[in-house]
UniProtKB/TrEMBL annotation:
<protein>
    <submittedName>
        <fullName>Protein S100-G-like</fullName>
    </submittedName>
</protein>
<keyword id="KW-0479">Metal-binding</keyword>
<dbReference type="InterPro" id="IPR011992">
    <property type="entry name" value="EF-hand-dom_pair"/>
</dbReference>
<dbReference type="GO" id="GO:0046914">
    <property type="term" value="F:transition metal ion binding"/>
</dbReference>
<dbReference type="GO" id="GO:0048306">
    <property type="term" value="F:calcium-dependent protein binding"/>
</dbReference>
<dbReference type="GO" id="GO:0005509">
    <property type="term" value="F:calcium ion binding"/>
</dbReference>
<dbReference type="InterPro" id="IPR013787">
    <property type="entry name" value="S100_Ca-bd_sub"/>
</dbReference>
<dbReference type="InterPro" id="IPR002048">
    <property type="entry name" value="EF_hand_dom"/>
</dbReference>
<dbReference type="InterPro" id="IPR018247">
    <property type="entry name" value="EF_Hand_1_Ca_BS"/>
</dbReference>
<feature type="domain" description="EF-hand">
    <location>
        <begin position="52"/>
        <end position="87"/>
    </location>
</feature>
<dbReference type="Pfam" id="PF01023">
    <property type="entry name" value="S_100"/>
</dbReference>
<dbReference type="InterPro" id="IPR034325">
    <property type="entry name" value="S-100_dom"/>
</dbReference>
<keyword id="KW-0106">Calcium</keyword>
Amino acid sequence: MASETELQKVIGGLLTIFRKYAKEDGNAWTLSRAEAKNLLVNELPGLIENPNDSAEVKKVVDNLDENKDNKITFVEFTELVMKLSFYRFFWGSV
Ligand SMILES: [Ca+2]
Ligand SMILES: [Ca+2]
């Protein structure tokens, strides 16, 4: 098999990161709220300014959970990744 391109590696990396956190409770298909918090705090440091502030954590995770079922799907997670990519594209940081 040919070696993966940069974009293929990025896609694989997104799946790897999602699954690493999603599998903690035995269901690797979705992130629970706690799993989502761990992913955000570890992989996107600075997105939640104060991880010990439960109100702030709740706000960020609520934002992520678009259909409000208390589970974060891979689609919901990648929407955040897309938004962060747009910010970086237009404003050069995040
Ligand atoms: Ca899970
Ligand atoms: Ca959801």
